[in-house]
Amino acid sequence: MAKKILLLAGDFTEDYETMVPFQALSAVGYEVDAVCPGKKAGDTVRTAIHDFEGDQTYSEKRGHNFALSADFDKIKLEDYVGLVIPGGRAPEYLRLDQKVLDIVKYFMSNNKPVAAVCHGPQILVAAGVVNGRSLTSYPAVGPEITAAGGKFVDIPVDKAYTDGNLVTSPAWPGHPAWLSQFLKVLGAQITI
């Protein structure tokens, strides 16, 4: 039986930050359950593509429809070895859902691997789990991390940072480093 990873998604989740980890983790043998509050397996969430085109902030374009692979209301947290929290617009409102916050608290309090990227750490902040932790995010989320008692780590957009069970990256250009570090924290052994 494949080990299971939980991925929290919502409408206007960032396209690459949702699809790439879903596909990459599936490709190396994990069963990835992508869920969204109020939705079931087979339902879709709309994604947004955030790009870095030389403006003062990222641009945003309509992405794909991403099919969810599990029912949010039926997940059993003890079945999962890790949690992925993509960025995009979704964390802004997912952090208002108490069950989402309880999921994050469960993974963090049980020292299970958690990977968050870009705006995903907004959910970590809302769950109250960053106090005393070092992590990165999209720079605009940095003040939220600091205000919540975390240490914001300012690194290049194509890098990732690991603090214990928590792996974070500023944005999707960091996927190679972010996913590699997350796989190490998961204890995955990939041989070439």
Provide a descriptive summary of the structure in words:
Strand 4 and strand 5 form a beta hairpin. The chain is globular. 46% of the residues are buried. The strands form three sheets. The chain has a six-stranded mixed sheet with strand order 3-1-6-7-11-10, with helices on both faces. A three-stranded mixed sheet has the order 2-4-5, with helices on one face. Strands 8-9 form a two-stranded parallel ribbon. It has helices at residues 15-27, 90-94, 98-109, 121-127, 142-147, 175-186, and strands at 4-8, 13-14, 31-35, 44-51, 59-67, 80-85, 114-117, 134-135, 151-152, 161-163, 166-169. It is of the alpha/beta class and 192 residues long. Helix 3 packs across helix 4. Helix content is 29%, strand content 26%. The chain has one domain (4-186): Rossmann fold.
Task: Provide key terms for this protein.
single chain; about 190 residues; alpha/beta; six-stranded mixed β-sheet; three-stranded mixed β-sheet; 6 helices; about 30% helix
